[in-house]
Design goal:
about 160 residues; alpha+beta; Alpha-Beta Plaits; two-stranded antiparallel ribbon; 6 strands; about 30% helix; globular
Amino acid sequence: MNNPKRKYTRLKDFNYSQSGVYFVTLCTLNRQNILSTISVGGGVIDAPSVELSDYGKIADTVISNINQTYDNIQISKYVIMPNHLHLLIEIDGASGTPPPTTAANNALSLLISTFKRFSNRQANTDLWQRGFYDRIIRDNNEYLAAWQYIDTNPLKWSLDEYFK
């Protein structure tokens, strides 16, 4: 049996525990629309409304707990879409409470793994597909672009690559 070879999505030899900002996308298992619903135009022109489902509320709570638990990790911006979420994660690799212990260059992967494990446990089901997508934010322009992408993502839901 030939299994497809998994593509490694992290940058080789990059230390994901060092200080930096990461734009991360996680998709639900089989890209099911289970986290929220999005309505556009409910009274305010072009203002989308994101209504979280029970699973979306669990994800929101776990994100808030991450921000309260770790001194050196901050989720500075996020949006919970129907079948995925986007996060801007800031890691201060020089100080603070470290994420769960393992290989030094895997803080981002460990954080995402912890997020998935806690939210799955609270939901009493598997919510997330394996892996995640990340982009290393290299400068202020990329940071602002990611911030704006998160802000405008609900408005563009029907055009989103994850729309199903």
